[in-house]
Amino acid sequence: MTLKEIASMAGVSVATVSYVLNNTAQVSEETRKRVEKIIKETGYRSNILAKSLRTNESFLIGVIVEDITVWHTAHIIDGINEIAEARGYNTILNNLRLLSKIESQFEHISNFQKDIDKAVDVLIGMQVDGIIYVGMHDRKINHVLHDIKKPVVYCYCYTDGEGSSIRYSNEKTVYQMTQMLISNGHKEFGVINGLKGSEPAALRFKGFQRALDEAGIELKPENVVCGNWKYREGKEAARKILNKKDFPTAIVAMNDDMAVGVYDAARELGLKIPDDISVTGFDNGDIVQYVTPRITTVERPLQEMGYRSMELLLESIHGTSVGDVNITLPCALIEGESVKKRNETAVYE
User: Fold this and answer.
1) Which among 120, 219, 318, 343 is most buried, taking Cβ atoms within 10 Å?
2) Distance separating alpha carbons of residues 155 and 138, to the nearest angstrom
């Protein structure tokens, strides 16, 4: 079924049918209903690819995600889709499934370059107007998308001059979290950092250390332990920090999974949170709702990262951008009940 055939059946011009389909011009209510009835009865579907050849715009956006099972990805995709829907665009998703293939060995992504190239070829073949690439770990990724003559935005990752990017603040966020702990009277700290070689782990520790340096607080080397982002390693790290007489008054865990590990280690050692030890996390993930007292943590602006990625891409598509931009969005402190003021019985507010 073609537009010409629909027009003939409705007794109108092809242009009128196009106006009805795209809602681009005034058509009488009677004519609109007649055309819509025939479209419904015939099961007509517009040919997006053919239309894109005529208009040089398909209103399709390609979204490549490194792994959809990584929990932050769904929130980012939802943000992308919300803006796309509001602006009359559709998205096509391609999941690279890299988590099971490389886990945290991100330097091995080049081993799967053929998979990435294939995903790009499929999207370009479908005449997408632009591509958003969503990382599964915040890091620099260069030369992953090759020779694409389409606008590209990187989300939850960034490159050196290969497209705009949207990230969240790691260093400043942990700096502010540590300042909050210091303002509550804490002077003895333990820290459970993320994976060695991880850029977010390095940035978070940098912010933590900066806050201590500014306050003139010395961090004991034995109170710095790597937890690899995981619950089990977080628990083991906490035992190393807490299983001694002069343990610190606060532990900064660089994500919520490790913070929950601190909870369980403290419980096994007969310590109470926050009375004996204050604990903070990072992510505000689903796990925090299952522990008591509620963890003081950080919420990343995942939905907004999706919004801004789509907005940046549309600006580039429509030629209103000023070139590649790299945006770092602030995170929000979520105050729970896991931090206590020193020398006081009440939890901070």
Assistant:
1) 120
2) 9
184 and 273 both lie in a single domain? yes
- Has residue 295 been placed in a domain? yes
Instruction: Say if residue 11 is in the same domain as residue 65.
Output: no
**Residue 182 and residue 219 in one domain:** yes
What domain range is 16 assigned to? 3-46
Q: Is the pLDDT of residue 36 over 90?
A: no
Cβ atoms of residues 158 and 326 within 8 Å = yes
Q: Checking DSSP bridges between strand 130-134 and strand 152-155, what pairing results, if any?
A: parallel
Q: What angle do CA 262, 263, 264 make, to 5 degrees?
A: 95
Give the chain's domain count.
Answer: 3
| Same domain membership, residue 265 and residue 192 | yes
Q: Which pLDDT tens digit goes with each residue over 62-120?
A: 999 999 999 899 999 999 999 999 999 999 999 999 998 988 888 888 899 999 999 99
Percent of the chain with pLDDT over 70: 95
20 vs 150, residue with greater confidence: 150
Q: What residues contact residue 84 under an 8 Å CB cut-off, 6+ apart?
A: 61, 90, 91, 310
Q: Are strands 326-329 and 297-299 parallel, antiparallel or unpaired?
A: unpaired
> Are 320 and 211 in the same domain?
no
Tokens at 89, concatenated: 């665009």
Global pTM reads 0.83
- Among residues 258, 278, 299, which one ends one of the domains? 299
pLDDT score for 46: 66
Phi and psi dihedrals of 13, rounded to 5?
Answer: -80, 160
- Condensed to tens digits (0 to 9), the pLDDT of residues 77-86 reads 999 999 999 9
